């Protein structure tokens, strides 16, 4: 066959290849966005858990530790715009021990991260669980009041 005939057959191949590859490339891009959002949100949850545990460990009473820990976590997550509604648990069972007794505060944050805006990716759930935990020690030799 002549060189001109081969070119005519190949002219239609490039748009066809582009039409087949475009959806695949778009799905790969959206999957990368979902993975990035998940990892970034996990980092923000870790920062919130760390701040909450630190705020709670500086409190003198279990009640104020709960309040301060949850407020610190909410503040960080709100400032960072994490697209989820977190559940924050602050374990204050060791606050209020007598001075000289070691203790710690544990904060666990559970969150369902929304991925609903990335629904073009098949098999991607509408939301995924993201968790963070941090433990902060209580100053052993501080006074109760």
- List segments where confidence is low: pLDDT < 50 over at least 5 consecutive residues: none
Radius of gyration: 26 Å
- Assembly state (oligomeric): single chain
Report the end-to-end length measured between terminal Cα atoms.
96 Å
Q: If strands are numbered along the chain, what order do they take across the biggest sheet?
A: 1-2-3
Mean pLDDT: 83
Record field, number of beta strands: 3
Tell me the fraction of residues in β-strands, as a range. Answer: 15-25%
The major sheet is characterized as: 3 strands, antiparallel
Which overall shape is indicated by the principal axes computed on the Cα atoms? rod-shaped
Q: What's the total helix number?
A: 3
N-to-C SSE series? HHHEEE
Notable features of this structure?
145 residues, alpha+beta, 3-stranded antiparallel sheet, 3 helices, 3 strands, rod-shaped
What does this structure look like?
This protein has 145 residues and is an alpha+beta fold. It has one domain. Strands 1-2-3 form a three-stranded antiparallel sheet, covered by helices on one side. The protein is rod-shaped. The longest helix has 45 residues. Helices cover 50% and strands 20% of the residues.
